[in-house]
Specification:
2 domains; Rossmann fold; 36% helix; alpha/beta; 9 strands; binds glycinamide ribonucleotide; 208 residues; 6 helices; seven-stranded mixed beta sheet
Length: 208
């Protein structure tokens, strides 16, 4: 059984997609042990509670400095003996110590086709604003392992989504979520849970 911890910051629709996929059997061999938010008002925490999943808030605001927050986050994650940490709309920059400790055991969903529209400052709605400004015709989402860079780790799954001329950032964000994010995040977890994902020379090989 793959023991998963999910880090969130906001609405938690990706968390919900994971929960739904667990309930419908699209993800097997997996349990969500804890959901941790840096934001106490995140609706994602309610979604966890509604599904009898432990919901914890660890906010940088409650610590005198960043290193104390980082220590508390790592300590909390370590308590659950996790095999995988899933960043599902997590807006916290993770400490290097955590990334080293959980090498190739942390995955993130990014709302664009990496290496386009990613890196520092590219998150949430802002990504879709940039996509529309540039006028590209295809965007999408990417699930990747997390390394020390921003959106630079090995790519696990990507899915393309059409951009329409009259899209607003909000409309495009919704389409990218519905047609890509909520599909590929559960898929990636299921592949990992069933031993299908290997990282070789910084690239992901998917078995079968
Ligand atoms: C999602 O669109 C996710 O791809 C994005 O934040 C949103 C969270 O929504 N993440 C990033 O931009 C990370 N760089 P959710 O809380 O409803 O899952």
């Amino acid at each position: 059984m793959l023991r998963v911890g999910v880090l969130v910051s906001g609405g938690g629709t990706n968390l919900q997609a994971i929960i739904d996929a667990l309930n419908s059997g699209k993800i097997t061999n997996t349990s969500i042990e804890v959901v941790i938010s840096n934001n106490k008002n995140a609706y994602a925490l309610e979604r966890a509670k509604n599904n009898n999943i432990e919901a914890v808030c660890i906010s940088p605001k409650d610590f005198d400095d960043r290193s104390l927050f980082n220590k508390a986050l790592i300590k909390k994650l370590d308590e659950y003996n996790l095999d995988l940490i899933v960043l599902a709309g997590c807006m916290v920059v993770l400490p290097a110590e955590l990334i080293q400790k959980y090498r190739n055991k942390i995955i993130n969903i990014h709302p664009a086709l990496i290496p386009s529209f990613c890196g520092k400052g590219y998150y949430g709605l802002h990504v879709h604003e940039k996509v529309l400004e540039r006028g590209v015709k295809l965007t999408g989402a990417t699930v990747h392992f997390v390394d020390e860079g921003t959106d630079t780790g090995p790519i696990i799954i990507q899915k393309a989504v059409e951009v329409l001329y009259d899209d607003t950032p909000e409309v495009l964000q919704k389409r990218v979520m519905e047609q890509a994010e909520w599909i590929i995040m559960p898929e990636a977890i299921n592949l990992i849970a069933n031993g299908k994902v290997k990282v070789e020379d910084g690239k992901v090989r998917i078995a079968g």
